[in-house]
Amino acid sequence: MPSTQRRLVVAINPAASFGRHLSVGPEVARRLAAEGYDVSIAREANWELLEREVRHAVSLGTDGLVVVGGDGMATLGVNALVGTDIPLGIVAAGTGNDFARALGLPFEDPMAGLDHLLGALERDAVPVDTALVRHGDQEISYGCVLSAGFDARVNERANRMRRPRGASRYTIALVRELATFRPRRYRLTIDDGEPRELGAMLISVANGTSIGGGMRIVPQASLDDGLLDVFVVHPISKLELLRVFPKVFAGTHIDHPAVEFVQAKRVRLESEDAVAYADGERIGALPVEVEVRPASLRVFR
To answer: Which residues form the DAGKc domain (predicted)?
Structure first.
């Protein structure tokens, strides 16, 4: 039990992992209260109301925000807390859980995640980098990866599918998208360098390591190096793309001749025929500008 009672806001996504973990949020709140924390719950019927409730709860003052769910909930927490001294805790209960993976948190068993959080609450919160993406007048922070290209198109297709419910939906969408996909033309600007015109299957701007529930597109990425990692897959055949993608899960694709990595503090990405997703959330059609924000978020790790 904490030596002095600390206040925690617990934000719950009732649709976490398509409803498979509906009981996790209440159990997190119950366990934290049993450990002596002053717990308030933020749970609303839709995403917009939940974001508003979380920001309001944080504005009233708290010693930490705990989000229960997947990468969407992690993104909600990042955007509510980035640039503040209030730490973020994550109990991963979603489908992909890529930000939890990048942080080294349990990502397959929510109860293991809760046990880890209880220990982390007794330690000092750790600063990590975030990335800020600008899209028109919109500014959104993310923790893991922004992508524009083949994988973003797969996300678009998967989001339109009603079945199956679960991680296999992404795999099915990937196979279907492959049938019609072609390389896109991009204009890529790194820091203050000259714009570069190129064709690519996809371009990602990574703060963390993975997308799509463990696809380790940038296995060498670090959350505390003050840098973004730009990942480019140059044009290859569809057959070769199918050969490369399984290697991405293991992070063994980094030596493939069609793969390129560049580190940056700022990135501008333009295209007339591509959309961007950040940690699974749709940002919109390019162009976008991304910059790293070093040590801008404190997390219970």
So the answer is: 3-137
Give the tens place of pLDDT for each residue, 229-284: 999 999 999 888 878 878 887 899 999 999 999 999 999 999 998 999 999 889 99
Task: Determine if the pTM surpasses 0.85.
Answer: yes
The fold of the 7-123 domain, in CATH, is Rossmann fold (3.40.50)
- CA dist 139 and 145 (Å) reads 15
What is the C-alpha to C-alpha distance for residues 32 and 63, in angstroms, rounded to an integer?
13
> For 84-94, how does the pLDDT look when each residue is reduced to its tens digit (9 = 90+)?
999 999 999 98
* Burial letters 268-282, b for 16+ CB under 10 A, else e: bbbbeebbbbbbbbe
Contact 131, 141 (CB under 8 A): yes
What are the structural domain ranges in the chain? 7-123, 134-295
Please state, in angstroms and rounded to a whole number, the distance separating the CA atoms of residues 81 and 125.
13
> Taking the CA of residue 153 as centre, how many other CA atoms within 13 Å lie in the half-sphere pointing to its CB?
18
